[in-house]
Design brief:
Keywords: Aminotransferase, Pyridoxal phosphate, Transferase. Belongs to the class-III pyridoxal-phosphate-dependent aminotransferase family. The model has no long low-confidence stretch (mean pLDDT 98). It is built from 11 helices and 15 strands. It folds into 2 domains: 120 residues, Aspartate Aminotransferase, domain 1 (Alpha-Beta Complex); 237 residues, 3-Layer(aba) Sandwich (Aspartate Aminotransferase, domain 2). By secondary structure, the protein is of the alpha/beta class. The N and C termini lie far apart (45 Å).
Length: 374
């Protein structure tokens, strides 16, 4: 059997990681400014993370959700305090797409509606409703194209209000910062008015913080810059530093009923150990504050590069837009300067490094980037 060929691959086999660096099988060292799509939050192979997972798997890796799991309870308690949402409830699953699926399902249970408002260039996952809420027709199969979703321009509140006034919208789902869409930021005032409009029309507001959450923006959640509280928040990626775990943070307005949601692997003992290790390190090493400080430094420095058309983002979630396609720039960074970065579309480079990135490592990147840009 061979692999189903759906990923265009760089001819590099990464075999080791430590902090903000990775190594390939030949021993070549790379600076990691992408963190595997914003997944690596506390750094590769953090010793505390390795220790917690090792001890847990030696004791118990998995048992079902039919018994008490005190590790789940501990994750919920500590995440509530760290995020500022201690009055919300937590449902644990495995992936970001699952988180958004369950969020949309909860919203529909709550108000009985079926229409979704999503935004231009949004990305919410690759399964069922999550992919239908994603503004990319290339990845929406006919079986998923069920006309549930209306896509609207980001930051145009009057257009949103007009749709919500029909009183048939189940949920508005919006990213704290658009990732795949090119590091596009919702305006603070837009989010405030969106919150008010959703409340007025009994529409559930879902904040997809899968890429922009867990300290990456310089606050725990990117929407907290606007001072709002959504009804549901979805998290994944950084929550487990590479171990598959995701969560749905659920407002007290929702009442749980046995059987309404469920999962086999979600919130298993090993996943919870990973999540607790991440919380430990974020707190101890002040990684949210570090993301704000180092991110601000990077943004300021990058804005002085005349070759870049636009620099945008918050914290360590940064987009660099060029007039021309960035494929050659990215390839030179990777193969000549040994730096991993991401892209969004044709003209945007995405920077999503581990949250432990230092000023010195930021300077290391800037020096290599200057060489590539000439």
């Amino acid at each position: 059997m061979k692999l189903f060929d759906v990923y265009p691959l760089f001819n590099i086999n990464i075999v080791k990681g430590e902090g903000c660096y990775v190594w390939d099988e030949t021993g070549t060292k790379y600076l990691d400014l992408y963190g595997g799509h914003a997944v690596i939050s506390i750094g590769h192979s953090h010793p505390h993370y390795v220790d917690m997972i090792t001890k847990q798997v030696a004791q118990l890796g998995f048992y079902s959700n039919s018994v008490i799991n005190k590790l789940q309870q501990e994750v919920a308690t500590r995440l509530g305090v760290l995020s500022g949402y201690d009055d919300y409830s937590l449902f644990l699953i495995n992936t970001g797409a699952e988180a958004n699926e369950n969020a949309l399902k909860l919203a529909s249970f709550h108000n009985g509606r079926t229409r979704i408002i999503s935004f231009s260039k949004s990305f919410h996952g690759r399964t069922s409703l999550a992919v239908e809420a994603t503004d990319n027709p290339k990845i929406i199969a006919p079986i998923n194209n069920n006309a549930h979703t209306t896509y609207l321009p980001l930051n145009d509140i009057e257009v949103v209000k007009a749709e919500l006034s029909m009183n048939d919208v189940c949920a508005v789902i919006i990213e704290g910062i658009q990732g795949v869409g090119g590091i596009k930021l919702p305006d603070n005032d837009f989010l405030k008015e969106l919150r008010e409009a959703c409340t007025a029309t009994n529409t559930v507001l879902i904040l997809d913080e899968i890429q922009s959450g867990y300290g990456r923006s310089g606050k725990f959640f990117a929407h907290q810059y606007a001072g709002i509280k959504p009804d549901i928040i979805t998290v994944a990626k950084g929550i487990g530093n590479g171990f598959p775990i995701a969560g749905v943070l659920i407002s007290p307005i929702f009442k749980p009923v046995y059987g309404m949601l469920g999962t086999t692997f979600g919130g298993n003992h090993l996943a919870c150990a990973a999540a607790l290790a991440v919380i430990d390190v974020i707190e101890k090493d002040h990684l949210t504050e570090n993301a704000a400080q180092v991110g601000q430094y990077l943004l300021q420095q990058l804005k002085s590069f005349p070759q870049i058309k636009d620099v945008r983002g918050r914290g360590l979630m940064i987009g660099l837009e060029f007039e021309e396609p960035v494929k050659e720039i990215r390839n030179k960074l990777l193969y000549e300067e040994k730096v991993f970065t991401g892209v969004s579309g044709t003209n945007v480079i995405r920077l999503l490094p581990p949250l432990c990135l230092s000023i010195e490592q930021a300077d290391e990147f800037l020096q290599r980037f200057k060489k590539v840009l000439g």
